[in-house]
Amino acid sequence: MKRNGRTPPPDWPSLFAELAQTARDPRLARFYQAGTVSADTPLDQAPLLALDVETTGLDSQRDSIVSLGLVPFDLRRIRCRESSYWVVKPVCELSSQSVTFHHITHSDVSDAPRLATVLDELLTMMAGKIMVVHYRNIERGFLDQAMRHLLGEGLQFPVIDTMQLGARLHPRRRRHGWLRHLLNKQRPVSIRLADSRLRYGLPLYQAHHALTDAVATAELLQAQAATHYPPSTPVGELWN
């Protein structure tokens, strides 16, 4: 059943308890055993972890991860000293387009570790946290496929998607034919990360660097929460 036009997310604590029993890989079992907070947890009490990944392309079935950035934070503070950043050797070749996009070159990845090398640290840092991302299809989709490739089973976790929150605040109206041209003269509001930040007076950062984008996403959620969501807002209203 949908709520307000949206499909409700799963009962994450129950799902994690189930996955902790069925996960075959001990690293995934430990990740799920750490659990997650209940949907009624106030946003200001939720353990948040901003996550960004840069990839060789947009298709998680064909492309792969080249860098990851993670930054723990809450509604008041971003803990940059506790952040992590990795450049990893992708499974597939870098393309000239992807190098132009994220500026990670062939020489950068030639001696970089494989994702498998940093997997324990990655899952340990993610354990018990709610991931905060900007466009969940990338972060959740690519990490799920990476785990399937490395471990033979996928990875599930709740996310708060700042792009999705932006879409809720600025819904794009669908108009058709001549009426659309007459009534929709203004372009839809952009919900890209940089444009979303500008609406809250946040500064521009270098785009497509995993650690910088993770910080930018954390700051954006802080601004969205300060403007639209009181600290007592249950995380279940925001996560997916």
Number of strands: 5
**Structural class determined from secondary elements:** alpha/beta
**CATH fold group:** Nucleotidyltransferase, domain 5
Helix content: 40-55%
Order of helices and strands: HHEEEHHHEHEHHHH
Pfam family, one: RNase_T
Organism: Stutzerimonas stutzeri
Keywords: Exonuclease, Hydrolase, Nuclease
InterPro entries: Ribonucl_H, RNaseH-like_sf, RNaseH_sf
Task: Describe the structure in your own words.
The protein has ten helices and five strands, in the order ααβββαααβαβαααα. Helix 6 (136-151) links the parallel strand 4 (130-133) and strand 5 (159-161). The model has no long low-confidence stretch (mean pLDDT 91). With 240 residues, the protein is an alpha/beta fold. It starts with 11 loop residues before the first helix and ends in a 12-residue tail after the last helix. The radius of gyration is 19 Å and the shape is globular. The protein has one domain (12-161, 171-228): Nucleotidyltransferase, domain 5 (2-Layer Sandwich), CATH 3.30.420.10. The longest helix has 19 residues, at 210-228.
